[in-house]
Write a structure and sequence with these properties.
transmembrane helix, 2 helices
């Protein structure tokens, strides 16, 4: 899945690798923070109940 996504991004941006890597990094960071927030919310709700 990840390889297909990278190939798609390369084709979409005309093989501009550095730009693609930056976008992928931004997406990974966003997903990481989103998951971290979700875990915190789950911990909080478990503490209350």
């Amino acid at each position: 899945m990840n390889r297909c996504f990278k190939i798609y991004k390369y084709q979409h941006l005309g093989m501009k690798e550095p730009k693609t890597y930056k976008h992928v990094l931004d997406i990974i960071i966003l997903i990481f923070y989103f998951n971290f927030g979700l875990i915190l919310v789950i911990i909080q709700t478990n503490k209350h109940s």
